[in-house]
Amino acid sequence: MSTPDLLLDPQLKYWVLLPISFVMVLVGLLRSNATYLLQPGPKLEEFKALREKQFLKRAACFRQNNGVLTKEEFENRKQYFTATLESNEFYAIVEDPNADPANPLTDPGMNDALMNMAKGNVMNYIPQTIIMAWVNYFFAGFVIMKLPFPLTDGFKQMLQTGIETPDLNVRYVSSISWYFVNLFGLRPVYSLLMGDLAAAELMNQQQQQQALPNIGGPGGPKADKLFKAEAENIQILTHKSIFDGITERVLEKYADELKAL
Questions:
Q1: Is the pLDDT higher at 122 or at 261?
Q2: What is the spatial distance between Cα 130 and Cα 197, in angstroms, rounded to a whole number?
Q3: Containing domain of residue 179, as a range?
């Protein structure tokens, strides 16, 4: 026996559906801007720390692209990088081997990371809690819309939260379920309204920070281990120029075309 369709009041979309959607979009925009404003600006690295990372990057570039060098140039650079990597000339911090290991909990960078994480959690938790309480208090038990496409019964619990009607068609959506749909589905709307400028800027900053290894930072590898590993990789290199036999390779590749001429 088929269940008859419900006759929904057209005013529901003006007094329930649109207010919930508008409030969630508005709060989402305010939260995004507040999070962006609270995001700490990029900190200037100390000269020695930056020099340490850049030198390690130079050594890796030599190891990967030494085929364009002559035999003499290769040997000179190999000797220089091996000797320098085995020394502590480019270390940002020369640690005393007899000193006690540093406590990562006392590191200022770790404290800043924990504080930023706490700010992000607060900015997400408090607004969503307030909105959900508002929806539950004013719009509990409302069936506000019917989806224009069929769904399986597996979506019933997700779309009809707060409505105790086991025989109701799964296409009907309750007010609190509409809140959750908006909660997880409004990101494209935010990107369209804001142009996603803040997110692009934050992503650019993260990529710049990840471009260089976090040497000596909380949870990061130690400089002496990275330098020693790079020195060992360079020591086993053998010179092989990309220009060796280039004439024969060109003639072999274009032999047929030269014969045709």
A1: 122
A2: 27
A3: 12-260
